[in-house]
Design goal:
The complex is a heterodimer of chains A (333) and B (384). Chain A is an alpha/beta fold and 333 residues long. Helix content of chain A is 30%, strand content 24%. In chain A, the strands form two sheets. In chain A, strands 6-7-8-3-9-10-12-11 form an eight-stranded mixed sheet, with helices on both faces. In chain A, strands 2-1-4-5 form a four-stranded antiparallel sheet. With 384 residues, chain B is α+β, with helices and mostly antiparallel strands. Chains A and B meet through strand 6 of A and helix 11 and helix 12 of B.
């Protein structure tokens, strides 16, 4: 059985204008950072979003939070009291709505203001929108979430310079969760940390999810992290979704050649992969001039005539398994 | 020097991860950290002390100087510095003294010349009644820091009119430093507004302001100064000239600071913690008040301190070539004007003492600014 949807992303497009060489010139072209992505995040799940650098995963995450202007498409939140069209919110409505969604940053150094105490940093989502809350109420809530994030209460008086990367990331997590958001985007939340601390933070995130019922969109380039934390995985390449499905099934039987290539790149202890490995050459193409047809056709070892002409549809190949490949069925075996 | 300062700044963490000292470090606010780091920067602290001393001398010039700025001692023209002594052939004295002077006629030129009379001592007393003056131009007073009972004392000698150089130097310190302060404040004010608007709004407004800044920056400074200074009407009072100078120095000084401020704000706007605040539902007012202002106050202070020497040097240079302030106003530049001729170099080298003050003040500002810049970096301990 599947959980009800929390966030529905429909045909989302985020384009950035490319400025000409001369100043004051109008935009000459567009970088299609996110191109026509349709994706549903289910309530209470962790959806892993993977891709190479430049694939648009951070852009997608930030666009959903309305941290970036969206070019086209729809984002719908299914809250308890009915669906909300996030893109239609403006000004004060949007600021008030922000308590339902939050972001955990990659860099635990840049994301905490060095001039604020930890208490003030964590309390910001409660105090900044100007809700009428007493200081005592805020303090109580801050202390509660700090304890959940395994932060010593005495830390609250300190400034960020007193902490290590892992502790700072806990502070960032406490800030993200203090207002009890339904949806949290973790943007490479553990990539900047040592491996031992990574595991620690991942465990913390999973524990918090269990206690608070939070939904995560977990953005990372690290497949082993995805394997550990995600319920489902979405694979992004050049701004387009390549494959989507339950983590275990994707790792066992990838349907898209790109996913297969990604998984082949994981170093393994066992001698062999359970599927024929695929090696990729070259770099990810320039997103301002993406290839015709299938975006992956320039690097795909199985590419044929059709791939270079026709954009493959993102279709359901098996129960809960989606991929954008003309020949997924043939290649799967 | 700087590096070792940083290493030592890391001290509290290294010495005791637990305990009183570590806790003090962890709960220290940004300003406390800056102060701690600055305190360990010995050169900067020396610079700061010198500047405090200068500020005191300038502020209480009337009190510190034994005589008025234009009081003449006809007995002692081009007189060399009189150095206070504690003993001579006739014995030791706890109270410092200088020798009295006697006037003789030069046998050849028949001009009056002053000779040191080692037979008569003049003891120096503190807090003596002297020429009346108004402290800060308001409070009437007579007490001077030091003086002699009979005759006069010229610690740094006298100039061609017999005016006491030490007294004049005190008044000049006040004038030159205050011009520096006002000029820098005006420049910083303009820079804050102009750079602030450019940096916060960005886009087209920023583009327009940047081109304007470039235009101001490429105007050659010396001809501009000369043109503006020449345009001062002769009948302007000294006060008017003084303020006009300040305004000119301020108007020329803002672009560099404005541009740095803009860059800082643009960088600041893209900081992760500003995005975090925005995603927490904060409005512009909250972001400016909680994140932007605190981040650039330290920055502005550093920049202002560093830009002081330029303003002081500009004033000195302008007054030196006769375009800035005019006598009877006294500033460092005007004092140096007196030291321009060959006769001064040959016969009265003490007239160059004001140059020493300029050099020391500029060095002190530079060193202090340098120390502040190191101390104000919030991640100096982590990243270096």
């Amino acid at each position: 059985m599947t959980a009800p949807p929390l966030v529905e992303i429909r045909n989302l497009k985020v384009y950035f204008g490319v400025r000409g060489k001369r100043m004051l010139q109008k935009a000459r072209g567009y970088v299609r950072a996110v191109d026509d992505v349709t994706l549903t995040v289910r309530r209470g799940e962790t959806l892993g979003l993977v891709g190479e650098s430049g694939s648009g995963k951070t852009t997608l995450g930030r666009a959903v939070l309305r941290a970036l202007p969206v070019t086209a498409g729809g984002i719908r939140f299914h809250l308890e009291d009915g669906p909300v069209d996030v893109l239609a919110l403006s000004g004060r409505e949007l600021r008030r709505f922000r308590r339902h969604m939050q972001l955990i940053f990659q860099d635990p150094y840049a994301s905490l203001d060095p001039r604020m105490t930890v208490r003030d940093i964590i309390a910001e989502p409660l105090e900044a929108p100007g809700h009428l809350r007493s200081k005592r109420e805020v303090d109580e809530r801050v202390r509660e979430i700090a304890a959940r994030c395994r932060l010593n209460l005495e830390f609250l008086r300190r400034f960020p310079h007193a902490f290590s990367g892992g502790q700072r990331q806990r502070i960032g997590i406490a800030r993200a969760l203090v207002a009890d958001p339904e949806f949290v985007v973790c943007d490479e939340a553990v990539s900047a940390l040592d491996v031992s601390i990574q595991a620690d933070i991942l465990n913390l995130l999973m524990d918090l999810q269990e206690e608070l019922g939070t939904t995560y969109l977990f953005i990372t380039h690290d497949l082993s992290v995805v394997a550990q934390i995600s319920d489902r995985v979405a694979v992004l390449y050049l701004g387009r979704l390549m494959e989507l499905g339950p983590t275990a099934e994707i790792f066992a039987r990838p349907m898209h050649p790109y996913t297969r290539a990604l998984l082949s790149a994981i170093p393994r202890v066992e001698a062999e992969h359970r599927f024929a490995p695929v090696k990729l050459r070259g770099e990810i193409p320039d997103p301002a001039h993406p290839p015709q047809g299938c975006r992956f056709s320039t690097r795909c070892p199985f590419a044929r005539e059709r791939c270079r002409e026709e954009v493959p549809a993102f279709r359901e190949l098996a129960r809960d398994r989606f991929a954008a490949c003309h020949f997924a069925e043939e290649l799967a075996d | 020097m700087v590096e070792s300062g940083r290493e030592r700044a890391a001290g509290p963490v290294a010495t005791g991860a637990h305990g009183e000292e570590a806790l003090r470090y962890y709960t220290a606010s940004q300003w406390q950290l800056v102060w701690w780091r600055l305190r360990r920067h010995r050169a900067a602290m020396v610079g700061a002390s010198i500047l405090l001393l200068f500020a005191f001398l300038g502020l209480f010039a009337d009190f510190v100087a034994p005589y008025g700025g234009t009081t003449r001692d006809r007995e002692y023209i081009y007189g060399p510095p009189q150095i206070p002594r504690f003993w001579d052939d006739k014995g030791f004295s706890f109270r410092p003294f200088v020798y009295a002077l006697k006037t003789e006629r030069d046998p050849v030129t028949l001009r009056k010349i002053a000779r040191i009379d080692t037979d008569r001592r003049r003891y120096i007393y503190f807090f003596v009644e002297g020429e009346p003056y108004r402290l800060f131009g308001l409070i009437p007073a007579r007490t001077r820091l030091f003086g002699v009972e009979e005759g006069k004392i010229h610690l740094f000698g006298t100039d061609d009119l017999g005016r006491d150089l030490f007294s004049r130097l005190m008044y000049a310190t006040g004038v030159s430093l205050s011009i520096g302060v006002l000029g820098v404040l005006l420049a910083a004010g303009l820079a804050l507004v102009i750079g602030g608007i450019a940096g916060y709004f960005g886009g087209w407004i920023d583009y327009g302001i940047q081109r304007l800044t470039e235009i101001v920056r490429v105007v050659p400074v010396i001809p501009l100064y000369m043109g503006l200074a020449a345009a001062f009407p002769r009948e302007w009072s000294n006060i008017q000239v003084y303020f006009a100078m300040t305004v000119i120095l301020g108007l020329v000084g803002w672009p560099t600071l404005a541009r740095r401020l803009r860059g800082h704000l643009l960088a600041q706007r893209n900081e992760d913690y500003v995005l975090a605040a925005r995603l927490s539902g904060a409005g512009s007012a909250w972001i400016i008040r909680k994140h932007m202002l605190p981040s650039f106050t330290s920055y502005i202070i550093v920049d202002v301190v560093i830009s002081f020497p330029y303003v002081i040097l500009s004033e000195t240079a302008l007054s030196f070539i006769g375009l800035g302030l005019r006598p009877p106003t006294i500033s460092w530049g005007i004092l140096l004007q007196d030291a321009q001729n060959v006769r001064a170099i040959e016969q009265a080298p003490w007239l160059f003492l004001p140059a020493l003050f300029v050099i020391v003040a500029v060095l002190a500002f530079t060193v202090l600014g340098d120390g502040l810049r190191d101390a104000a970096d919030p991640y100096a301990v982590k990243k270096s």
